[in-house]
Fold these 4 entries.
Entry 1:
Amino acid sequence: MTFDAAALANAATRKLRAYDPGHDLPALRKRFGKVLAELGSNENPLGPSPHAIVAIEAALPEIFRYPDPQGGSLKAALAKHLGADTAQITLGNGSHELLMLIAQCFADADTSIAFSEFGFAVFPIATAAAGAQPIRVPALPRDHATMPLGHDLNAMVRAIRADTRIVYLANPNNPTGTWFDDAALEGFLACVPATTLVVIDEAYHEFVTAAGLSSALRLLPRYPNLIVTRTFSKAYALAGLRIGYAVSSPSVAAVLERLRESFNVNSLALASTEAALNDQGHIVKCRDWNFSEREYLAKRLHAQGLRTLPSQTNFVLVDFGRDAAPVEAALFEHGVIVRLMSGYGLPDCLRISVGSRAENERLLDALP
Ligand SMILES: *Cc1c(COP(=O)(O)O)cnc(C)c1O
């Protein structure tokens, strides 16, 4: 009998496909050199706080040691920064790991997990990996006057079943850039049963400038079933180090701790994020710069007759009104990398990260 590893995989894994890494970026960097404009992964082109780099260099001599399995020093800094308790914080190898861990700890084949159409791609993967039933809730209609393609929280409430163990919501959302405000979230949480965990993914929180959109953290004292996730990959510009965190009730954190790999966060990530956290001036600078550069990019795109969705993130979803794959291919030939949205069911859209001014100009010049 021939060996067939795929047939031996467990039921949940048999249904999964490996992550599509998209273009081979290392090869493209060689081909295009400095003129490559990487606008596909929502990285912050301003880079991290210089203090983070100094902290990495200072931590290097101890690299032969295992990292602190508790991440105690960073957790203390985070607790102070967030006004939370260290017992509420779980550190992850990127927030991606935490989103997966939450499903692994709380869901199984006897439960369901709800998320929105056009929600973050990791949510259905976490659901499938846990073997749970996915409940995909339609987004707000495209012609909706205020927030097209945004999460429909009223429909989400109606979709929650007795066996729904988790609801995943990104606010602001990737790939749409859309958001729901404080009043909408409070109304939603009041309707969710205590047997359903609500995960609010705030990966783009540090970029937010809109009034009436504050962090869900303020609601944790009232809702022990609430989990807020954040990342150092976006505004903090430390994507290469892979570190994020979850803030929850201590009892939820204690459950996550059972399955968390003990050394999941490396020592350079621990040291540098603590330094980055203490340099909030840099984050304010990144937020202000991102706001004005995103406005500039959107204005220039509108001048070319293109439509963009409102965004509180460091990217814009651009509606080309036709199949966007040839546009993506033309940009690619000019060394401008953007993200196709066909996998999300939005084949006429591209997601474009806010790059440096030079990268944004290269994109605008290369648009067919
Ligand atoms: C980028 C992103 C993340 C962050 O992932 P990391 O694993 O922390 O790098 C999480 N959620 C959303 C919605 C994102 O866009």
Entry 2:
Amino acid sequence: MEQPIAVTRQSFDDWMVPVYAPADFILVQGEGSQVWDQQGKSYIDFAGGIAVNALGHAHPQVKATLIEQAGKLWHLGNGYTNEPVLRLAKQLIDATFADKVFFCNSGAEANEAALKLARKYALDNSGSEKNQIVAFNNAFHGRTLFTVSAGGQPKYSQDFAPLPGGIIHTPFNDLAAAAEVINAQTCAVIVEPIQGEGGVLPADPLFLQGLRELCDRHGALLIFDEVQTGVGRTGHLYAYMQYAVVPDILTTAKALGGGFPIGAMLTTNRLATTLSVGTHGTTYGGNPLAAAVAGMVFSLINTPAVLEGVKQRHQWFIDGLNQINQQYPIFAEIRGGGLLIGCVLNKDFAGKAKQITQLANEEGVIALIAGPDVVRFTPSLIIPEQDVKEGLARFARAIARICS
Ligand SMILES: *Cc1c(COP(=O)(O)O)cnc(C)c1O
């Protein structure tokens, strides 16, 4: 066999479109919640590939499923359905409010499908005037032009104008403000039960309940973007279950494939008929390889033991982070749910989240940011206690350094 091409971190700057600024080391191997770089240095993984590797790295059963399916059938195209995708659809339907599922490859695509469904449903049932989408400031829904426009951070969309119209933004967790803009012309409201990228900010239960009532009153569809909060992340299979507010459409991706790209839009029978044959689609959506892996990931996570384990791990993190904060007062607030945790830096450390994650890397732990002022943790849902302890000890050393 030919020698593989030699690559270093410099290769990224040489060859890659510079939309990312990756860390200055390259990870090459992972097992459970540990990863290793090219030099063999070990890191505890508190990021889980940004809330994706929900069962850690190289999970034996997921790996076995991938290898088994790889020997059978990788791809067919949508002119032919397949067994893994039908089984995965049934798993999602049995576990949620949904009657029907549309599969795609990412969170953005799932939201794109949801927004298109909402527009067409309103057009078919109420006419072309009912086309307004209400979204929230600081929301994140993906990077396609429609979803980045629905997102509530103009810095991600403004350079790509003209943007799709008919999208109104209003403050998150402000029901009175939402009531001002939701009306007969609203076709959908899209909201994250916990704003992830926007700073790990949980929705107030009364806010989501109020949105449900406003949508019902004005005949608008309620879309929950659970791309980050779904598949056990909060200690509930989906966050809507904890809020006891049922959406009309739910989007899920990230943890669904445990590291293999897949996304899905879940909805009801009544709405699903809107997307009749030929109205929407995607080549890879429902690919048997992705669906087989997701089916195994979903069945491993959707158990009382794993979901309860997330709540227990939440407490390990909260206790450890509070302890660090007592020694080095740096966080104004520690918030989030389950294993989606955000540490909000106090004003003395404002803007230093990225620097903290860089120091954390040096100490041997992978952490995330959620904006410039929040350090975010989204580890594996089954991370072992000793890895939590060791990772927090390493993180504490990083905090000690930024405080000195
Ligand atoms: C990550 C994320 C997305 C986008 O998902 P991609 O797979 O990157 O397209 C959308 N919504 C939320 C809430 C997310 O966290």
Entry 3:
Amino acid sequence: MQTSQNLSKVLSAINDSARQAGRSAESVSLIAVSKTHPVEVVQEAVDAGQLIFGENRVQEAQPKITALPAKLRWHLIGHLQSNKVRLALPLFELIHGVDSLELLAHIDRVAGDLGLFPRVLLQVNVAGEASKFGFPPGKLLGFVEEIVKFDRVQIEGLMTIPPLAPAPEHSRRYFVALRELRDKLATECRFPLPQLSMGMSNDFRVAIEEGATMVRVGTAIFGERRRG
Ligand SMILES: *Cc1c(COP(=O)(O)O)cnc(C)c1O
């Protein structure tokens, strides 16, 4: 009950933010981040109409994906270790956190073995935090020549996690930076990347104002997690 009420609040906030930004509500997808929450709780969100879910650990996600309806679409939002790629590729329709050329090359190779064309986003460490995964924003343009050589991975966009901040407004400049990097890749490298995955429970409204096409929202839908 609580989950479905929370979900409808989040959906209407997405709607409002999109409209205020002069965008259509359909231009923003909600990824309901179900990590740490049991299948019964996820099922409540499914019953309320949610279809796309985000998980950050492959081993945790696998039994949930098996237990829940096949119509659901699963996104991997966390760091992907290379030894989990083979298991992850058939399970997830989109991998948000591809954070190095080595990982991209490995995904491309494994995808070849499995006969898949995985969709991925490149994670960018916009704030340059030592503790975070991601491509350094200044380096990404220089990598494009190598990135376009992979023939299996479908690179659809960029993803970022801004630094923890006391107020949503603090995230704005990082969201702007991700959008501007995306625009630069399109104009200077002819490498168009339509998807921007940015914004979590506390700052998804600001992210939508700055062009997010996917928001990853956990706590605002499912409540607090016992582990993060
Ligand atoms: C956990 C997580 C989220 C969701 O965070 P909330 O603050 O609970 O909305 C979003 N993105 C990533 C990468 C996460 O790991």
Entry 4:
Amino acid sequence: MRFIPYGWHYIDDEDIEAVVEVLRSGYLTQGPKLSEFERALAQYCGARFAVCFSSGTAALHAAYFALGLGEGDKFITTPITFAATANAGLYLGARPIFVDVEPDTGNIHPDLIEGALTDDCRLISVVHYAGHPVDMERIWSIARRYNLKVVEDACHALGARYRGEPVGCCRYSDAAVFSFHPVKHITTAEGGAVLTNNEEVYEKLLLFRNHGITRNTKKFLYPSHGPWYYEMQFLGYNYRMNELSAALGISQLRKLDLFVRRRREIASYYSEALSDLKGVMLPVERDYAKSSYHLYVLRLRGDFAHRKGEIFSRLREMGLGVQVHYIPVYLHPHYRRLGYTPGLCPAAEDFYRRVLSIPIYPAMSDDDLFYVVDCLRKVL
Ligand SMILES: *Cc1c(COP(=O)(O)O)cnc(C)c1O
């Protein structure tokens, strides 16, 4: 029986060639492919700087650090995300304040942010859930009023557009973070990046990725001991991206527009073919947004939501790799241990009860799509 996962990478001969070429050349890490990939990413998104990392999670950790989040601080984020968005703040000794979501997009609700702010809140980290951009103008205006930094966890939204501009250009944020895990829009196997327009933030990101080490003589805090001298100025990590990943990223990025076009094509096919099903609500797209459809998320209505377990199992038996994105982060045991309790974000918990992600990725054939729709129509 065939199995159609909810997401999958797309690798062609060009990608394979690009990686093999690196294996045959000199550098496996800290070579020329990394900066080439970073330049290409920054250019694609229209930001001044891009810094790559070993994962999207490492990139989030670095972005929060570079924007000054630290011990005892709070930051605003959404519960409807992969745990990494909140975890990256915990790594730094900060605590998330979870703000409830919009019931249709699943994005953080801009109207609810001001009421949740505390004096020790330093940063807002939003997630463009499923690839649908948050209304960043509104987030930015709140952040300006209360002197907060803004991070876009754009791990779902490479190739999406907000008011005509690419997500990642950072017009309304201090930094945007991407992941290149194989289920995301482009892959480097594991990998991530931070984009920013701020040179100081950029320099902190570079150091954070490499143990906090600088070799820039102009930046030394103490007199040099000689030509071998370098300084470890703060506690950083080894979060570097290797050359194989960077070469794969360059090759994948060339196909990104095709990938996004195919995802949008699949989404409009689903939205057409499922429009008459009474049991589901389909994804929405605001007039300011062009989603890159990392996920295609159905929301079950009424009785269908109560029977999600059964629906999920039947679809899995038919070979559909349906998934649920996401269990609200604060319901996980680790967060409960920190004092977060059920009922904190009622809209997020209701959203969680309803959602079901169905397969969407560029390598899906038309035949796969017909099969998915056929299974859904049978079960729903
Ligand atoms: C994938 C993802 C991450 C983490 O990325 P990794 O590369 O797997 O570390 C963070 N946030 C969101 C919203 C994601 O989807």
